[in-house]
């Protein structure tokens, strides 16, 4: 026995046509919704992993490169972050400062340059020293709009707030002048009263140096003689992992490990300048707010 439907075999034509109208309207609505989600970026169609610009997991250099390039002004030199070393943790941000910013810092500093000193660990006072033969001066934090902008860029680069930074120090080294290897962190309580320990340093090169003047890390771990610029380094520069000064580049290195212990591999110095002269600017960053 064949059981017939309520309407017998098949639907009445009128009903069938209203179902297809509903289906058509729903199809249009879904297509519209799908296109809207795509346009507003709520979801995306994955492309094959080999496409350009897709970085591997943990490939920090290319992540930073991709992000930083977005902020590149028209006509400005390419900017990217290069990881240099894990012990100490160090990276360089290429073309961090423009030529105009470098010149601005040098011009502000020039009238006030005095023989560089080191900090006495018992009194916290500055004292003359043979380990440091450069000339330098400090520029007040937030001293003008250009300094404010540089300090904001440093905060973005390091993830450490502007208020944790000491004032910028500008240094000038002439032929033969140097800064012997030292750590930027303190071994006493006096110097850590304001702001706590120095956690990291950003060293900005305000000029190129024809020969010598490298920043050297004598305790760094790695096979440095395989570096492509090894042959261009001075004897002092070959005494560890070295960064050659290049105008506008900013070297970031950490004096503290992620577990808050001090990192002795952050020992560093400025090699003697052999030809030309060197201008640099240092920003020391503290664990806590540094009151100025
Ligand atoms: O000039 C350099 O390369 C090193 C400077 C330095 O060590 C410092 O300012 O703490």
Automatic annotation (TrEMBL):
Please classify the protein's predominant subcellular localization into one broad category: endoplasmic reticulum
Q: Which cofactor does it need?
A: L-ascorbate
Q: Which residues form the Fe2OG dioxygenase domain?
A: 164-287
Carries keyword tRNA processing? no
One Gene Ontology cellular component term attached to this UniProt record is: endoplasmic reticulum membrane
List the keywords (alphabetical).
Dioxygenase, Endoplasmic reticulum, Glycoprotein, Iron, Membrane, Metal-binding, Oxidoreductase, Signal-anchor, Transmembrane, Transmembrane helix
Domain of life of the native organism: Eukaryota
The main enzyme category here is oxidoreductase
List the InterPro entries.
Answer: Oxoglu/Fe-dep_dioxygenase_dom (IPR005123), P4HA-like (IPR045054), Pro_4_hyd_alph (IPR006620), Pro_4_hyd_alph_FE2OG_OXY (IPR044862)
What family is this protein classified in? Belongs to the P4HA family.
* The protein's name in its UniProt record: procollagen-proline 4-dioxygenase
Q: Native species of this protein?
A: Lithospermum erythrorhizon (Purple gromwell)
